[in-house]
Amino acid sequence: MGGSAMLTYLLFLGAWIALSTARHFNRSGLITLEEAWIPAQFFDLVNTTPVPGNPPEGVSDAQFLSDFVDVHNQRLKTMDAVGISYMVLSFASPGPQGFSDPVQAQQVAVEGNNALAAVIANDTFRFGGLASLSMHNATEAAIELRRAVTELGLLGAILNDYQQSGADNSTLLFYDSTEYDPFWQMVQELDVPVYLHPRTPVSSLIKLEWSGARSFLIGAAWQFAAGTSEHALSLCINGVFDRFPNVTVILGHMGEHIPSDLFRIDQQLGLEAVPMKKTIAEYYQTNIVQTTSAVFSEPLLDFHISQIGADRILFSIDYPWQSLEVGANFMHGVKLDAKTKAAISTNNAIDVLRLNR
Ligand SMILES: *[C@@H]1O[C@H](CO)[C@@H](O)[C@H](O)[C@H]1NC(C)=O
Ligand SMILES: *[C@@H]1O[C@H](CO)[C@@H](O)[C@H](O)[C@H]1NC(C)=O
Ligand SMILES: *[C@@H]1O[C@H](CO)[C@@H](O)[C@H](O)[C@H]1NC(C)=O
Ligand SMILES: *[C@@H]1O[C@H](CO)[C@@H](O)[C@H](O)[C@H]1NC(C)=O
Ligand SMILES: *[C@@H]1O[C@H](CO)[C@@H](O)[C@H](O)[C@H]1NC(C)=O
């Protein structure tokens, strides 16, 4: 074999190896990535917390509960019926963030990740997963994330707002301090996204802030967005994205309201000596993307496109709290040009989740 023939052969071999090891997934329809699941062995444990909330209209409580555990039956059947080609699953909130005992939180995370990898192992063409992590110790979180990504094939992490800790569950750990740098360093190194997802408040906060009729505001009506947007903004103002410029954080529920208020947030933060290098609007172009989960309103989608751009928005549903049919039909029906629609419904997720590598 001559030199150039040999080179061609090696290039061909390299391309073949790259192709044969690339992730193989169904890209023909919608991709959706804020979709809950509960490992059967943890169902009783996590079901004692205020989750799971209310089922979608027309779904019985019994069906709702079984939807959390199911993957290959009603979930997949409905995905086929409504054109969802690939779904990314994650352990329902609060997951490990709901355990103040570091040992128990770590056990829930590790066993949850093993169970998630196992349940989707025979159908990675249709399902991916995000890792749950105990956030009591940043180094331990980094090590488990690496294991989940490199050994289990998961696509990134989901963190359910702050990690509760302390004997009375009242110490709240936010991931904005330099103590969490080993975690963010690993996120950047692995080049995977982190989904920052809501959680319900610890009981001491409920007593202080959300009692009486205000308790109706706990959860999806308001408190989820208030808590998660505070945490996301705290990552910005404490310079996490300045220290780790390649990190991508995904927010659900149309950015937990942040794009609706960028004018006022940046105007006020600009008047103060905030230890961050960019504006929140700028971090939204470099480090933050958001999904449509549970917000199926076309005027709102148009507004958010106008504020942050269609390339920062990914379709998602929030099953089983939301109906797969309603969510998918919303996306199929939006009046956007074909390229923008394909970006939001499928292609942006392929980029953010690095599905092409
Ligand atoms: C790919 O996804 C579509 C839904 O968008 C589904 O109808 C089709 O059966 C899937 N293909 C395979 C081979 O699973
Ligand atoms: C994967 O395994 C489950 C049982 O755990 C089964 O119901 C399902 O059909 C299997 N899927 C594939 C694609 O083999
Ligand atoms: C965090 O975990 C690492 C790795 O297991 C360990 O070396 C370190 O001592 C832990 N830090 C704390 C404060 O417990
Ligand atoms: C702390 O939370 C755990 C479960 O998350 C619960 O069993 C325990 O009673 C709580 N402790 C206090 C003092 O609220
Ligand atoms: C960030 O990403 C760019 C582009 O992919 C890459 O060249 C650079 O090395 C990355 N930086 C870090 C610190 O990972």
TrEMBL record:
Residues 1-22 form the signal peptide. Keywords: Decarboxylase, Hydrolase, Lyase, Signal. Pfam families: Amidohydro_2 (PF04909). One of its GO terms (cellular component) is cytosol. GO terms for molecular function: carboxy-lyase activity; hydrolase activity. Gene3D superfamilies: Metal-dependent hydrolases (3.20.20.140). One of its GO terms (biological process) is secondary metabolic process. Residues 94-355 form the Amidohydrolase-related domain. The keyword Signal applies. Transmembrane segments: none annotated. Coiled coil: none annotated. Belongs to the metallo-dependent hydrolases superfamily. This is Amidohydrolase 2. The lineage of its organism: Eukaryota, Fungi, Dikarya, Basidiomycota, Agaricomycotina.
